[in-house]
Design a protein that fits this description.
7 strands, 6 helices, alpha+beta, three-stranded antiparallel beta sheet, Helicase, Ruva Protein, domain 3, binds heme C, 272 residues, 2 domains, rod-shaped
């Protein structure tokens, strides 16, 4: 397959460059992908933080008082004012977020008061896992097929919750906040990055390949061809022209040896 020394060298250079650049490409691609995904995860964490501040603030103040509200068995009324507690404020904000294209959040439980808050398979799994984790744990998943990031944080049941959620167990995790963020933008970013790295490494590799092949040609292949020609000439009796290559390396040595051969041949011919 590789008859000439040139094709052997070219192939060897190509393989070495391919391994080096392939490894670089893989590492850089992974690193950038992780970086981009981390940024998206940060976004989910910040959204949760904001909801948590709000939740804590409303909880501390016992709720938000709203004027002229229609009757509801979970809403405490005092005169014309009614108190909306944390769960209800969050539920209403969640409803508002469902129309949002940047992110959505839901407060979910496998035992919901409102059936629309029923947790799905991923949320159930997360809530199960949280039971064995610390209360400030987080569970997330980048779903590249559905192009979303799912992020869940647990809610711990306190005495206060049992008033309206009698089927919850004190101290256990019965529900959580579930945030969904579209990730089309980062999928696009990761793709673009891949194209960028592939072209950068591809072009650099091609340039290096050309330079190295050229150098190997000049340093090794051409001189060998020249010496082969010279040896051929000597063998057919053309012994008057010197073709010495003045170099201090192996090719220089070989050239000197051929030159000595030519001179001895010449002396022998003259003796005749
Ligand atoms: C004053 C009553 C009340 C209290 C106290 C209360 N909640 Fe709720 N909670 C509700 C109502 C009402 C909903 C349903 C909101 C809706 O319509 O989406 C709800 C919804 C939820 C949900 C979503 C699943 C569901 O049941 O629909 C979770 C999870 C939840 N609450 C957790 C808690 C936790 C944890 C606490 C204690 C820290 C708590 N709640 C305290 C009234 C309450």
């Amino acid at each position: 397959m590789f008859k000439s020394i040139q094709s052997k060298i070219n192939f060897a250079i190509f393989i070495v460059l391919l391994i080096i650049f392939g490894a670089f490409y893989f590492i850089m691609d992974q690193q950038k992908k992780t970086e981009i995904m981390d940024q998206k995860l940060k976004q989910a964490q910040v959204i949760y933080q904001q909801l948590d501040y709000l939740k804590t603030w409303i909880g501390k103040n016992g709720g938000i008082w709203i004027k002229d509200i229609k009757d509801d068995r979970y809403i405490v009324k005092e005169g014309r004012y009614a108190r909306k507690n944390t769960s209800i404020v969050l539920a209403e904000l969640s409803d508002a977020s469902l129309g949002n294209k940047d992110y959505k959040f839901r407060v979910v439980s496998p035992k919901p008061l409102n059936p629309k808050n029923l947790s799905d398979a991923f949320e159930n799994q997360a809530l199960m896992k949280f039971r064995a984790m610390s209360p400030d744990a987080e569970i997330y998943k980048f779903d590249f097929d559905k192009k979303i990031l799912r992020y869940v944080k647990p809610m711990v049941t306190s005495q206060f919750c049992l008033k309206c959620h009698p089927n919850y167990e004190l101290g256990s995790i019965e529900g959580g906040i579930s945030i969904t963020i579209p990730i089309e933008d980062i999928i696009q970013q990761i793709k673009q990055n891949r194209i960028y790295y592939a072209s950068f490494f591809g072009i650099t590799m091609a340039v290096l390949l050309v330079i190295m092949v050229y150098l190997m040609n000049v340093i090794v292949v051409k001189p060998i061809k020249k010496l082969t020609d010279q040896a051929d000439k000597i063998s057919t009796g053309e012994i008057n022209v010197s073709a010495e290559i003045h170099r201090e390396d192996e090719i220089g040595e070989l050239s000197k040896a051929i030159e000595r051969l030519r001179i001895s041949f010449k002396k022998m011919m003259n003796l005749k």
